[in-house]
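Annotators were shown the component list below and the corresponding predicted structure, then asked to write short factual statements about the assembly.
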Amino acid sequence: MTTVFGVPLAAILGQMMLGLVNGAFYALLSLGLAVIFGLLGVVNFAHGAFYMLGAFAAYIGLASFGVNYWWALLLAPLAVGLVGIAMERLLLRHLYQVEPVYGLLLTFGIALIAEGVMRSQFGASGKSYPVPPLLQGGLNLGFMVLPVYRAWVILASLIVCGATWLLIERTRLGSRLRAATENAKLVQAFGINVPLLVMFTYGAGVALAALAGVLAAPVVQVSPLMGSELVIVVFAVVVIGGMGSIIGAIVSGLMLGLIEGLTKVIYPEASNIVVFVIMAVVLIWRPAGLFGKEQ
Amino acid sequence: MRAQIAVYGVLAAVALIAPFLGLYPVFLMKILCFAMFACAFNLLLGFTKMLSFGHAAYFGASAYVTGWLVTVQGWGTIAGILGGVAVALLLGLVIGAIAVRRQGIYFAMITLALGQLVFFVCLQANFTGGENGLQGIPRGTLLGVIGLGNDRIMYYFVFAVFAAVYVLIRRIVHSPFGQVLRAIRANEPRAISLGYKVDRYKLVAFVLSASLSGLAGSLKALVLGFVTLSDVSQTNSGEVILMTLLGGSGTFLGPLIGANVVVTLQEYLSDLVGAWVSVIIGAIFVVCVLVFRRGFVGEIQRIFAQRAR
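Structure shown to annotators:
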């Protein structure tokens, strides 16, 4: 059997595949964070909570209303996105005039509220969500059997990330969004409704987080705390990629998932902290992040 | 000035007789430890406008090290505390050196991520006891004669340390060094253009804050006799922000009042409402950020300032 550093190659490739699945979630979540940060200048601490709410929306939908996975994939992001829009309208909007750290603190408070409410309703233990029938089984890749569902997660995340990138970089709406990110006042003066754009951007970013939550529901335990640790890793991913950089968020999300997977085989004790260590190194070497621009 | 002396006189008198008023000394000591933590945190947030989102790292790491030194290594109380503070200082130096390279929101995210790194190290290291934490930490004696096992004696020891830290922080803020920090808070580019090596000042403030947070953590470990992962967790970092914000960041008394409110709330609410505590804490956060950004003391000061006019 082929080995690298005394570790079987098959194990390395297997863990890298699994790492890529995590990377797919990192990419989806950091993409939403980057879009929101770019336009609103708000670091959305509630992103993990919205991811959790997306997973719970799928779980509740199936358990109470018989909404299947495919409908959940559409409806959960819509429902959670609406919650996000309401939040932007009622709360976040009042903080654009003050320093950006207050946006971080507000969304932190909202994350605490969302987690507390879900914990008092569903308890702290995890709930399992079944893999949809169409995506059961495994693919034999030679070095490992990859569950079809995990392959689907990677594929779906790549499609969504690619579509979002195209929307922002190649469409009229996207060009307005980018223009508003550069100079909101000027764009407003040209007759574009910037507050509306901001509201829907926040909603869309939140919906991406919820979509990641639905995708994650069958592979992780659905629990009120599933988002709170993840969001910190995703923050580190965004810092590594460069705040506000769309492509940076996608690439560094996938890459860090891979590296995390590799660390699990080579030095398992460090797998929880490797992302943070990389962040520290990147900050020393390139303070603006890998894809970020120096202000 | 006279009003200030009166306020402090009353506060000190209340603190000195508090154990005889039927209040549980351990609870009072817990409040003092968190008040010290919040005051140390305020040195950064209030007086330098740096929002660290990972301050539990210094509080918790120092608590673990002190607990381990006195329990496993058999060190004395003071040596154990100093050992913990030294570790918090070093951590603050390393993390601060990385974090002060960026400002504002970036600084917050970096300190958060590096704080989480410290959390995972504490989760996996051998000396911290992992999920179980450290238990049965002895309080030891002071100078070899004064036994700190007695709650009231321990209370006065903690109070003395708190008072010293409080005076030290006032002294730092009012020193020429503190004035430079205020200049950085008011307008960082201007401070740079005046020739100040801003990053160095920020790093020194960060290290001071981390060390004093560590001192608070060490004392908490000795007071309660145990250290758990929640001491080093992100929740704890969030709570110290809330204490400072609620009481009034950038004021001296604010963090003290905020710590009183938050610790008391947690103590009494957790039995009553369970998981809803985090909902209540979150709601206070939201209200504070939206309509109460000056905090209690900040609002009172504003009212007095308006009257004076």
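Statements collected:
1. The first helix of chain B runs from residue 2 to 17.
2. Chain B touches chain A through 41 residues (CB under 8 Å).
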